[in-house]
Amino acid sequence: MADGREDPAAFTSASLPSDPRLLATVTNAYLGTRVYRDILHVNGVYNGAVGDTHRADVPSPVNVRMTVPGADSLAETFTLNTRTGTFSHVLQSTEYVATHQLYAHRSLVHLMAFSITIQRSALTTQPITVRLQTPFVPKSQDLDLNRGPDFQGAHYVYGRTLVPEVEGGPRPTIHMLWTPVPQDLTLRGEERERSWEFLTAVAESEEEVKRSYSEGLALIAAGSLHSSHAHAWAMVWQDSCVDLDGPLPLRQAVYGCLYYLLSAIPPRGNPGFLFHGISPGGLSNGTRGEDYWGHVFWDQDTWMFPNILLFYPEAARAILEYRIRMLEGALRNAREQGYKGAKFPWESAATGREVCPEEIYGAQEIHVTGDVLMAFEQYYCTTQDQKLFREDGGWKLVGAVAQYWCSRMVWSEEEQCYHIKGVMPPDEYHCRVDNSVYTNAVAQRSLNFAADIARDFSIPVPVEWGDCAKKVKVPFDAEKKYHPEYDGYRPGEPVKQADVVLLGFPLMHPMSSEVRRNDLEMYEPVTELGGPAMTWSMFAVGWLELKEVQRAQSQLNKCFSNITEPFKIWVENSDGSGAVNFLTGMGGFLQAVLFGYTGFRITRSSLCFDPAFPDDVNELKVTGVSYLGNKLKFTITKEEIKIQVTESPQGPPASALEAVLQESGQRFPLREGQSVSFPTAAGWIQRSSTE
């Protein structure tokens, strides 16, 4: 493993990419930065009024570069180890090894840290000095920073953001403590090895920042700061992992996507802060003019959320709680546009108000409201967490979205159905179109879910919900047997990104395999080849559904042009433009594996499976799938499926499960600690019919 390439979870290089945007990121759910960058960002802390609001830049004390002055012929390596969530820089000579490690602590989310270790490898007694280059200046264009008194050897600054998103909106205060960084560190002649640790704590109160910094110091004193972080990551991988017996680039891509996406979610248990969602470029990006300024889009709910839900329902709930807290802003957005209910913003930040700098998207790309509700539906189906809806605001949100869709529809006397007019579909090459097939289908799904959940809770279902769901137009060409993207779409017109193909997955809109195939064949050749990275994943899922495995793989292979070396950072567009650390593309890619190769589908009453994967993948292991409180491990080959229940909930809400095969109807009870195996075939997991 000299160059690290044999381990699919460690990305090693002798040099850094020339484009600093492609450097590895180290983030947790609260703090994030790119290595060797002079700023870091904090969850939910934005500066600037609507149209200008962006992640507030916080000066980064962990932006340090290690060098050895005057040294010749040093071997140099840079490694991102996704197993431990650690970036390291190693300088090695015949006489010593100097190692710089940097990480955002996985479980103590207010902490970032780095260490420098010098280890003598020859019997010399010369002092060995490394230089630490740091351009750190405690100033910010977004914060009114003031110097406070030192605390336990740390420097201290604090300050509020300068401009609220809306008048009277939040202006959070950031408090930061950091260990001062010297210019040089020296291993003295009599020493064989020594480590120096440097801590940064960031929080929104003086009490929290001091508590976190003290906790970090205590762990340093016990010699366990980094090991506690690495252990937390080990538990993540133990709880949730996808491993393939297949080509190394595919395995590396999966590990990279999982690392960057899982870095963004809150740790298990009470994280002690309000989670503010996930933007396309994550917490490491989002300064003014970069990566959509750190705003939250449908990217979170449609592209990232299903993967998170499958492994971490707690984190999925935190994402939904963010949307619930933004409901007042969504209600106001709808009112301002002359509609009832709640219209979620195309771009969301701290208040739920529309913060997109360009009005056209906020006014027209309304499918995001249905995308938000689809995430709530998937969560409800996999967890049956009624508390979120009955007590924690979920039902109010569901009802408000249903109300919005009803008020957004107009009746067409001519066609005798409801129309939704003047929208921009996911394909942003077209605007002000009528009856975008995706928008109307997701609206229909929202209304059906709202009615279903009302019935579950014995709440009367408004008549108009059922009427609008039943009678909304979902464009379909009966002659050509395909779905036109919108009224008046002419076959052959260029399309920016996955749009109509999303009807099959994730919407699971009812259609025959012939129509599914026709949609794929109609839109594949006209979709922008260099467009957003998540597109081809959805074509791959479609072809896998139809068991056209090689055709699916040829689509998924297109994604590799969006993955950059050496740290597997995704770019939004294959020419390198757009967002970087593009979690949206990673989320799509993971869905192609997690929902495509396995055939997983979340329905009202089951978790379906129907595996299909390419010839060069021999085995797929998915560990930690959460369903109705149980944790499942799937081991799938072309010949056999093995399902093991690794964890079952205790107490009354526990659901005993069974696997049912589609063709034979054969049932296999699933009990904790036991596994069942059967020949690879379609089927589903459901509540046990014998309980």
Detailed description of the structure:
The protein folds into three domains: 10-238, Beta-galactosidase, Chain A, domain 5 (Distorted Sandwich); 257-596, Glycosyltransferase, CATH 1.50.10; 619-687. 29% of the residues lie in helices and 23% in strands. It is built from 16 helices and 30 strands. α4 (298-311) crosses α16 (583-597), α8 packs antiparallel against α10 (394-408) and α8 (367-383) packs parallel to α11 (437-456).
On the 0 to 100 scale, the average pLDDT is: 96
Task: Kindly state the number of beta strands.
Answer: 30
**How many DSSP H or I helices?**
16
Distance between the termini: 50 Å
Percent helix range = 25-40%
| Uncertain stretches | none
**What's the Cα radius of gyration?**
26 Å
Shape: globular
CATH level 3 topology of the largest domain: Glycosyltransferase
Strand order of the largest sheet: 1-9-10-11-12-18-16-15-14
**Main sheet: strands, sense, barrel:** 9 strands, antiparallel
Give the strand content: 15-25%
Tally the structural domains: 3
CATH class of the largest domain: Mainly Alpha
The secondary structure category is: alpha+beta
